[in-house]
Amino acid sequence: HPNTTHSLLKQSYTMAHILTAVSGTQADIVPITRALISVSDKANIVELCTYLASKNVELLSTGGTAKALRAAGLTVIDVSDYTGSPECLDGRVKTLHPKVHGGLLGVRGNEQHEKDMEENGIGKIDMTILNLYPFEATVAKGAEFEQCIENIDIGGPSMLRSTAKNHAFTTIVTSPDQYEEVKACIEENGGTTLALRKRYAARAFSLSAAYDSAIASWFTKELGEESPVVARVYKPQFQLKYGCNPHQKPAGILSLLNSDLPFTVLNGTPGYINLLDAANAWLLVKELREATGLAAASSFKHVSPAGAAVAVPLKDVECAAYEVTPDAAAKLTPSALAYLRARNADPMCSFGDYAAVSDVVDEDTALILKKEVSDGIVAPGYTPEALAILKAKKGGKFIILEAKADYSPDSVEYREVYGMTFSQKRNDIIITKEHMTQKVVTKGGVDALTEDAIRDMIVASICVKYTQSNSVGFAKDGMMVGVGAGQQSRVDCVKLAGRKVTTWYLRQHPKVLGLKFKEGIKRQDRVNARVRYIEGDFTAEERTRWESQFETIPEPLTQEEKDDFMKQATGVTISSDAFFPFRDSIDHASKVGVSYVAQPGGSVQDDQVTACCDDYGMKMAFTGVRLFHH
């Protein structure tokens, strides 16, 4: 019982005898004369031990490690020969011996310790290099209970803790990524420094805590009980300039100990919000690619998509609205086409975006990004030509991240907020065609859905999965044309996103396409001017500045002209991250050409909402999946 566990832990802490410090002769630099090596990960271990041997360090080792070192021509003493006690019990007992732990724990310069060591024939061991048995990897492979138990390391953690405890005199090395620093420190100082030993000891104890927590969590799970303790140990990877705001310092990025980050930084210096955008944008396009089989792209701002799309050919009127010729559009690669669409869902909001592309970025895609104001991109790879173009962007500061194809996140994710740690199963559900076709509740059933409609339902649903809730999204022709994020009322989400849909449509109005800008007006200024022309609600001062961008002052786009143009809107899909509680959202969606609806269902008003869709001739699918994102 959790309360019992807490009480027992508290009691044991209260009753424990607190030891006093043991004094010795403290030195900053400790030369390495004898090292004990026992590693499961043998990466670069031969190189490190060759270096140590060149410094006349005596090498002690066990089993496979000793065999690997001897094969490289190094002189190695088996621990069993050193202790005079053979390995036994199927290798379960190798290093659990006073000559090992005494050599690690003995306080140098302490009269009693020195005497005990001499009387018992215990030599000093100055460094331990070890990895722990790959327990978590064994569990991940689906090994039987007994095999997992056998891969619980006993000797390794014992040596690790002994060495780390005595870090004033001994050096604990637990990872190949420390080897170069160890060599450099010895080369420069003739031994290891106290600062390095302290730092390595802290990492070693963190590793021990994580290892024991993994065992405890697995064991209690096997018994069908909740783990009494969850230890998550993080390794700092790099510092950030600041967090969400400039006054939020320090800030940094960490990875779980012994785990990689999901991205490699190829160029630039990413910020806190950049990386939040990158993570969500990458997951969105990755899932779009998996669900549709088409190249996908997204354009993120403040951890919500301004746009997202898959590679669907452009119509001529879209080419005109997006400032690309039909011939050039026909030659675009799928990745370039997807990003062109994603960026043009809401080009005003996409200003300064973080981009993501599902496929390797090619020169075409890079050339589109080159002319846009953007902070960075994440993709699974880049051609040399594309990388050169992007690295030159923003004076060399454009952020380029490469997603690791083999990265697999933990199934449970954690978040700390105000002293509380939240945990939940990661939202790893992949939205597919089956979600859109399993329960079509409007007239005509599933047969009323076209393949294009199903595609757009998938695009819109995956988009809202990565949009701050409450959210709805409108899609047409494989692209988002309006995203409404972070509203407390669902109908407000629909109104916000619906306004964006109207703007997207009206950017294709002949009067908007016919605007004559003066030479030299920048691309983003043209984008903003068109949107303001459509909105039309200028102040007197604003109108004067707006009109100065044109060769001739444009005639107003009247409300009647807008309404007439919007009557042709049709074939739009709306997806909602949760059910529609009332018909008002559907009523409003009808004003912007919605023909298809995807939502989880589950409201007491489902029948009313379904009847409303039938009234407007819309086709609605209940996906059965809520997609809140916070």
Q: Specify the number of helices.
A: 26
Mean pLDDT: 90
Provide the β-strand percentage band.
Answer: 15-25%
| Helix share, percent | 40-55%
List the helices and strands and how they pair.
Elements: H1 2-15, E1 34-38, H2 45-54, E2 58-61, H3 63-71, E3 77-78, H4 79-83, H5 98-105, H6 111-119, E4 127-130, H7 135-140, H8 145-150, H9 155-165, E5 171-173, H10 179-189, H11 194-222, E6 234-240, E7 251-256, E8 263-267, H12 272-292, E9 296-301, E10 304-310, H13 316-321, H14 326-330, H15 334-343, E11 353-357, H16 363-370, E12 374-379, H17 384-391, E13 399-403, E14 412-417, E15 420-425, H18 433-437, H19 451-465, E16 471-476, E17 479-485, H20 490-506, H21 510-513, H22 523-535, H23 540-547, H24 559-566, E18 572-576, H25 584-589, E19 594-599, H26 606-616, E20 619-622
Parallel strand pairs: 1-2, 1-4, 2-3, 4-5, 11-12, 12-13, 18-19, 19-20
Antiparallel strand pairs: 6-7, 8-13, 9-10, 9-11, 14-15, 16-17, 16-18
Helix pairs in contact: 5-9, 9-11, 12-19, 15-16, 16-17
